[in-house]
Amino acid sequence: MTIEEEIKQIEEEIKNTKYNKKTQHHIGRLKAKLARLQNELEKRRISGTGRGKQSYAVRKSGNATVALVGFPSVGKSTLLNKITDAQSKVGAYDFTTLSIVPGMLEYRGAKIQILDMPGIVEGAARGRGRGREVLSVARGADLVALVCDVFNYNIDALISELYQGGVRLNTKPPNVVITKTERGGIEVHPMVQLTHMDEILIKDVVREMGIINADVIIREDITPDRLIDAISGNRVYVPCIVILNKVDLIDAAHVHGIVQEITSKGFETVPVSSEREINLELLKEKIYSKLEFVRIYMKPQGGEPDLKEPLILRKGATIGDVCDAIHRDFRNRFRFACVWGKSARHPGQRVGLTHLLEDEDIVTLILRKE
Known about the structure:
Blueprint: H1 3-16, H2 24-49, E1 64-70, H3 76-83, E2 101-107, E3 110-116, H4 131-139, E4 143-149, H5 155-164, E5 167-169, E6 176-180, E7 186-190, H6 199-208, E8 214-218, H7 224-232, E9 236-238, E10 240-245, H8 252-263, E11 269-271, H9 280-290, E12 293-298, E13 311-314, H10 319-326, H11 330-333, E14 334-340, E15 349-351, E16 361-367
């Protein structure tokens, strides 16, 4: 039996097995075995056919990258053309976009790269319609924007393809630490009460994933799927919004109902019309806020801060990140920094490389002379 046949067999068994307390252990092990086989198949595919295989080469630029992921003919190209400087080909038929088309959105001092990608079809995660290449680009994005329209807003299909491609939307990585050991078997150390898995199932899932000896520290009420993600180590966790396009073609009450339905699934939704340019400024603001930028104003020693052109970083940025963004040698030459703003205990606080910055902080770097 080939790996593909074994995967299909396990998928059918999971699909046909009713989930309850008696079967949850069995299903958990099946999911772990399925994930291991899928990881093995992907490794074989990359090593066996990676060279010479067509792929989308996209050079990242700007302060962040947003991937437009959606079905064919939902208006992604028109949207890209309206909010950026790009000229993506537009047509009233499926698959007008056959490659990745980048555009640059400049908003509130930030340069945001927007990527218009070929439409996703069912089976994309398994390679249909060059789906693997499209999903690989989405994996590298800082924000995924699911684009649908008022006539086709089944985002569950898009989420499923991204999920199968290892992309986890609007969720954080599992709070699990797995340390492989030389002997002693698998030791589980739960730091919280577990309601979805017992220790026996946790050990079985870890073993099924190919780990024989390990210390497993669990700091959340873990599920089998989340534990498998933690062990696999090849998942990406990306924030996501939904763009509902073509809202000019139906009445406002219908639009409101669709937005509520999508929002109830946990996704912030922006209703727009790219053709009529409705809510495009609202969309730009939503993209900007979702990317959680931090604007840092640089102040030369003894001089005035530059309040016109901020240094754009992401939430969680430190003084070390400021050094890296300005010059690759600044971190090595760093002595200390002075900070004014929300992150400073007092104006001009003297701080080190690990100091966490806030939006609109003013920073002066003091460096050693070359």
